[in-house]
Amino acid sequence: MRKKKRNPVRTSRPEREYQRALTQVARQVGMIISGFPPGDPEAYPTIERILRQYSDTLHDWAIATASRMIADVNQQDRKAWVLRAQDMAKALRDEILNADTGVAMRGLLAEQVTLIKSLPLEAAKRVHELTLKGIEDSTRASEISQEILRSGEVSASRAMLIARTEVSRTAATLTEARAKAVGSEGYIWRTSHDGAVRESHKEMEGKFVPWSSPPTLDKLTGHAGCLPNCRCWPSPVIPE
Predict the structure, then answer these.
(1) pTM to 2 decimals?
(2) Do 149 and 33 contact (CB within 8 A), yes or no?
């Protein structure tokens, strides 16, 4: 059996903390929705209004929460580069460690704020669709009402997916920014070499991927670590 490999950028702690924070939002979403009669069309406008207001109030909190995650992952990425750069010339090592990652970090922050604020909005949309379905199919009204009450649980699952995917994507994006700063044109795709690796990702193991041309796997396009639930990572190829 192949030995399980680990991403040199340690993301487990940032992921746990980010997931814990986003789960709090999902829990609040569930409490808001459960305070109204499930499936009542007259209650929906109030539910939507409250969830939209909640999304708006999350803005500053989302900035602070996402900033902590990005700063933590950035520190872990820098540590990984310190280990990678031990055998490099000092000038190149300094250039990598002092690369300007500001543009990448600002882009990541904006995307994270949007994702966090989307949790209540997606829940409102789901309640609306289920409420309409209950009106159209009265025989399933009870079943649909139970699904509405599960909205907090669904939001929690979404929060977990966001945390897992976005922490990994943040690490890969920062690695790319530092690698490109010294002329890297691509990376070697690496997987964790365990039984949970998807077949399409397993086939990418050891392949060179240009930064300018992310592959399309299972109808999704993205670099290693940037696809939903992807635990792969990029091993940058640095020019001689």
Answers:
(1) 0.89
(2) yes
